[in-house]
Amino acid sequence: MPSLGPPLSPEQLAQLPHDDRGPMLIGVSWGLAVVAAAFLALRVYCKHITKRRLWWDDWILIASRALIITSNALTTVLVNDFKLGKHNWDMDIYDRVRFYLVISSRATVIITAIVWAKTAFAVTLLRLTTGKTKAFVWFILVSMNIAMGFSAMVLWIQCQPLAKGWITDLPGTFWAPRRRWLILPISAYSAAMDFTLAILPWTFLPNLTLGDKDKIGISIAMSMGVIAGIVAIIKCVYLPGLGVGDSYDDVHLFIWDVTEATVTVVAACIPTLRVLLRDATQRPQSSRLSAIPDLSLISYRDLGVKNPNVAQELGMLPVEEVESGRSTQIGR
C-alpha cells in the first residue's frame, strides 16, 4: 500500500516529477496474458490432435490463466481509477476503502494464479513418477500450496478486527505490520520449488531407452520451470520495498508477479508442445510411415517406460491410445 503522506501545495507539486508507469503496467500485463493464452491454446490443441482428454493439470492451468485475466482486470482498475503507476503525490485515492479492497484482491488473485500454475506442473509429474519420487512431489505440492495460500490470505487476516485491513480508520491492531518480511521467505521457498520441480525430470527420464537427443529434448522441455524460478528470485528482490516508498517504484513488483504467473504457465505447456515440434521437423507422413512400418506395434515398455502415462504425456510416440500396455496408432 502506498504511503501517501500529507497534502502538498501547488508550489511543491510543481517541483516534483510526474512520471507515469501505469500505461506500461497495463500493456505488459495484458501482453503477458496473451502469451499465456497462446501457449495454453497450443497445449489444448496438442491434446486434441493426439486424442487425449484434458486432465487435472490442464484444467488447473486453465483456471490459473483465468486468474491472470482477473488480476489484470483489477490492475487496470487500479491504474485507471486510482492512478497506480504514478508517484504518490499524483495518485487519486478518492475512495480508500475501495482502493484497499481492490489492491488486496489483486494480490490474492495473482498469488493464487502463480501457485496454481506451479501445482499444474507438479500434478503432471505425479503422473510420471513412482515411489519415493512421487511422494516427494506430493510434499512439494502440499507444502507449496499451504505456504502460498497463507501469503495470498495474509492481507485479509492481518488486522483485528479484520475490516481494519481495508477500513483504516477503524480502531484495532495489525498483527503483521511487517507482512512483507513474512511473504519474502515464502516467495523464496516458491522459487526453490521451481528449481526442484525443474530438476526432477532428469532423475527418471535418462532411464528411458531413447536416443540421447530425445532424452535431452524431453528433459529440457520439462525443465523450463527454471525460468520461473529466476523470475521468482527477481521478484524477491523487490518485495522488501513493497508499500514503504513510492508507488511509482512498486510497479516493478506488479510486473514481475504477473510475469512469474505467465512464465510458469508457459513452462508447464512446453513439454506438451513437443508434439507440434516433432511433427513439424519430421518427414512427411507417407515417408515417415513407410520408413517405420510396424510403428503401431511399439509398446511403451519398448521405450523403457514403466508407466504408460510417460509415453502418452510427453509425446514420445505418434498419435496414439495407450491400452493394456500397448500403443495403438490411430489415423496418422
Word description of this protein:
The chain has 332 residues and is mainly α. It has a single domain, classed as Rhopdopsin 7-helix transmembrane proteins (Up-down Bundle). Helix content is 64%, strand content 4%. It has helices spanning 10-14, 22-49, 56-82, 96-128, 131-157, 179-199, 201-204, 212-221, 225-238, 247-269, 274-281, 285-291, 308-313; strands spanning 159-160, 173-174, 320-323, 326-329. The chain has a two-stranded antiparallel sheet. A hairpin with a 2-residue loop joins β3 and β4. α3 packs antiparallel against α4, α4 packs parallel to α10 (247-269) and α6 (179-199) packs antiparallel against α9. Pfam families: Fung_rhodopsin (PF20684).
Radius of gyration: 24 Å
Which secondary-structure class do the elements indicate? mainly alpha
Query: Secondary-structure element sequence?
Result: HHHHHEEHHHHHHHHEE
How many H/I helices? 13
Unreliable residue stretches: 283-306, 316-332
Determine and state the CATH class: Mainly Alpha
Q: Quick one: overall form?
A: elongated
Helix share bin: 55-70%
What is the distance, rounded to the nearest whole angstrom, between the alpha carbons of the first and last residues?
56 Å
Average pLDDT across residues? 78
Number of strands: 4
CATH topology: Rhopdopsin 7-helix transmembrane proteins
Query: What is the CATH architecture annotation?
Result: Up-down Bundle
Strand order across the biggest sheet? 1-2
Number of domains: 1
Main sheet: strands, sense, barrel = 2 strands, antiparallel
